[in-house]
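Supplementary Text 2. Reproducibility record for the structural model of the 244-residue chain.

All settings were left at their defaults, and a single model was retained for analysis rather than an ensemble. We include the record here because the model underlies the residue-level annotations in Supplementary Table 4.
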Amino acid sequence: MTHTAKVVLVTGASSGIGEATARRLAADGHRVFLGARRTGRLEELAERIDAEGGAAVCRRLDVTDAADVRAFVSAAREHWGRVDVMVNNAGVMPLSPLAALKVDEWDRMIDVNVRGVLHGIAAALPVMREQGGGHFVNIASVGAYEVVPTSAVYSATKFAVRALSEGLRQESAGDIRVSVVSPGVTESELADSISDPRAREDMKAYRSVAVPASAIADAVAFAVSRPAGVDVNEIVVRPAASAQ
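Retained model, structure tokens:
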């Protein structure tokens, strides 16, 4: 563990970008506190990180439950003594045309992608303010910059993540850093939640040039590693072969 080691909380850590981020930050010497709903995968990840010489603890987490997120942050603080970085990564992406009227899926995206980030901010911000500083890393998407057919609601949630992050940055200048990391098409389980046939077919072609989740983890690690006076506000990571 280095003298720059931080306590980093990662939501949605059981797979994909969250898992890769946890492994990368632990390898960099940070202490990671991992949350997701799939406790079996979380425990396996924490054990793997520990076996590789890192420091990891995990706890079941549902980001749509504000009280659960508060308990998650409190548990991390109790275990490690502080909360330096909150990586709001948990997200879902059940793409579909608006005319398909998949209202339940719209609600799920709003609950996880928007309320989940808000719950993370609400739980960690008072702790960071009390200890004199901290850093939010919110995972958005290239969908936070563009809208394509089937992505309207998903993009709306990611536009919201950018807006919330910018508002938090402006309101917290001087003590709280805020970074938005926006992945292009990335190897993950996000597309598994797509139930609409058209969107599933479109995604197969789109994902043919996907970058590994480790590429996004590298971007998170870069933002986290900057000196205290440097705030990396936005990073967009796309496959070199992708036009979108």
